[in-house]
Write a structure and sequence with these properties.
- By secondary structure, the protein is mainly β.
- The chain has one domain.
- Helix content is 10%, strand content 38%.
- It contains one helix and six strands.
- It has one helix at residues 34-41, and strands at 5-8, 14-17, 23-26, 29-32, 49-55, 63-69.
- β5 (49-55) and β6 (63-69) form a beta hairpin.
- It starts with a strand and ends in a 10-residue tail after the last strand.
- The model has no long low-confidence stretch (mean pLDDT 76).
């Protein structure tokens, strides 16, 4: 899985790229990510929705960045 990527674009905007897996493994068992259905239903991730990213949560230097989700791309890797 790709690591989240945060970069500042020439016009001063911030681009944050991340993956939301459809499945994850817990204690050797493959489970469907319940957030994935919310993505499909548009509850959490949808075009032009706001979200906040917290870096170093509950630690010194905590930083909160508010972002607009402007693009959602579905891709598949293996199964």
């Amino acid at each position: 899985m790709q690591e989240p990527d945060l970069k500042i674009v020439d016009d001063g905007t911030i681009e944050f790229t991340f993956n939301l897996p459809m499945y994850y493994t817990l204690n050797g068992e493959r489970l469907k990510n319940p957030l994935w259905n919310n993505v499909i239903n548009g509850i959490i991730v949808a075009n032009m929705r706001k979200t906040k990213i917290i870096f170093k949560k509950h630690k010194q230097g905590e930083k909160v960045i508010e972002l607009m989700i402007t693009k959602v791309t579905e891709s598949h890797d293996k199964d």
